[in-house]
């Protein structure tokens, strides 16, 4: 038995003018049409939404956070419920991150060693330790289809010495992750690091490519760097990864980032942005981001976006949703979350279709013009 008994990736069509490609990614819980955006369910729930509402957006796969699930509710409890799929009653694919990014973002509450990371729970002060082996055990118990290697994410900005040190630990930890992980029905994705240094990114990409993994991820972006820097790192790194395997750009989720990422050859994306924006009253449109509380929408009886067919756009107006937001009704955040997630999923679906019919370059350029010239 091997990973090939549970996973497969087929490139249906590749663009002739760019690195964009449309694929089919087979997992134990279903086939994912790529490129795909993955809504984030940090604590085993997508904020402000039921899973029926998540399904209605067209979501094919969601992400859960192993660090948060390890602290609360606890991996043993989730395992006893049948893993995340049983715990959440979600029958489609799930991806869990390793918890590395959350641990390293704790700043003064953690200590990084060659063995792993000692840290304190910021909520109650309890002390914990996660190593590559423990991360694999946590994610085994959670039972996601795709799990991530335990890595160190260098901050932005950082100097070369700091980036070098983080990459060296990431490489050593990756070997330990693969040694510890034995479940063939879980795909372990290595993560490319190297901060914002081209030579380190190349070294990391070449190193992870030596592992016969189901797929590969690019981490360490969307950590405060300018957009042009993020685009550069993605553009130079993606082609260094195996062509016939899915490529995942971690933590990226603006419409412009998705378009550019797909152009550079990325297949999978995740981000908390659509639901976080929604809770703050911001919604996506094909003319850029808009803010629902603005007075211009007080008497606006049109949908959030004229080209969207999500539940919110089919059933409610900007004026109504603005009223809910201004009166602090939680339903406003729910409707905006449904719209924002549906918007991104519909965007990548349309981009996938354009790759297949050979119009990706012209279609993506047209979309970028609308997003970047926000009204």
What is the subunit arrangement here?
Answer: single chain
**Spatial order of the strands in the main sheet?**
11-10-6-5-4-15-14-13-12
Extended strand count: 17
Cα radius of gyration in angstroms: 20 Å
Q: What is the helix content?
A: 40-55%
Low-confidence sequence ranges: none
Shape: globular
Largest sheet: 9 strands, parallel
As a percent range, the share of strand residues is 15-25%
Question: Your description of this structure?
Answer:
By secondary structure, the protein is of the alpha/beta class. Helices cover 41% and strands 18% of the residues. The strands form four sheets. A nine-stranded parallel beta sheet has the order 11-10-6-5-4-15-14-13-12. It has a three-stranded antiparallel beta sheet with strand order 1-2-3. The longest helix is centred in the C-terminal third of the chain and has 28 residues. The radius of gyration is 20 Å and the shape is globular. The mean pLDDT is 96.
Notable traits:
375 residues; 17 strands; 15 helices; single chain; alpha/beta
List the helices and strands and how they pair.
Elements lengths: L7 E7 L6 E7 L2 E5 L1 E6 L9 H6 L5 E4 H6 L3 H6 L2 H6 L5 E4 L2 H5 L5 E3 L4 E4 L6 E4 L1 H11 L3 E3 L11 H21 L6 E3 L1 E2 L5 H11 L7 E3 L8 H11 L9 E3 L5 H9 L4 E4 L1 H7 L2 E2 L6 E2 L19 H5 L2 H9 L3 H28 L2 H13 L3
Parallel strand pairs: 4-5, 4-15, 5-6, 6-10, 10-11, 12-13, 13-14, 14-15
Antiparallel strand pairs: 1-2, 2-3, 7-8, 8-9, 16-17
Helix pairs in contact: 6-7, 7-8, 10-14, 10-15, 11-14, 13-14, 14-15
């Amino acid at each position: 038995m091997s990973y090939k008994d549970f996973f497969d990736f087929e490139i249906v069509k590749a663009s002739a003018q760019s690195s964009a490609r449309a694929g089919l990614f087979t997992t134990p819980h279903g086939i994912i049409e790529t490129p795909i955006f993955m809504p984030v369910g940090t604590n085993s729930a997508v904020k402000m939404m039921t899973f029926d509402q998540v399904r209605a957006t067209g979501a094919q796969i969601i992400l859960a956070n192993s660090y948060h699930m390890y602290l609360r509710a606890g991996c043993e409890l989730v395992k006893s419920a049948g893993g995340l799929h049983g715990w959440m009653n979600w029958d489609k694919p799930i991806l869990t991150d390793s918890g590395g990014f959350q641990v390293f973002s704790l700043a003064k509450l953690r200590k990084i060693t060659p063995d792993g990371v000692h840290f304190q729970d910021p909520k109650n002060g309890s002390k914990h330790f996660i190593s590559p082996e423990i991360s694999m055990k946590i994610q085994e118990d959670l039972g996601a289809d795709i799990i991530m290697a335990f890595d160190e994410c260098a901050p932005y900005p950082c100097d070369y010495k700091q980036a070098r040190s983080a990459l060296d630990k990431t490489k050593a930890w990756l070997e330990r992750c693969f040694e510890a992980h034995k479940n063939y029905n879980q795909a372990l994705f290595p993560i490319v690091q190297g901060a914002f240094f081209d030579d380190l990114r190349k070294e990391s990409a070449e190193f992870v490519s030596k592992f016969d993994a189901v797929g590969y991820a690019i981490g360490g972006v969307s950590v405060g760097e300018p957009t042009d820097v993020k685009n550069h790192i993605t553009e130079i790194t993606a082609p260094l990864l195996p062509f016939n395997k899915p490529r995942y750009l971690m933590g990226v989720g603006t419409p412009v980032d998705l378009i550019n990422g797909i152009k550079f050859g990325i297949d999978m994306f995740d981000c908390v942005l659509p639901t976080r924006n929604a809770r703050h009253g911001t919604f996506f449109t094909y003319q850029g981001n808009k803010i629902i509380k603005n007075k211009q929408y007080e008497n606006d009886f049109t949908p959030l976006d004229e080209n969207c067919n999500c539940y919110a756009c089919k059933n409610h107006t900007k004026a109504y949703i603005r009223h809910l937001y201004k009166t602090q009704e939680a339903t406003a955040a729910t409707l905006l979350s449904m719209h924002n997630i549906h918007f991104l999923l519909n965007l990548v679906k349309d981009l996938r279709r354009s790759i297949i019919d050979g119009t990706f370059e012209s279609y993506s350029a047209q979309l970028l013009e609308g997003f970047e010239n926000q009204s």
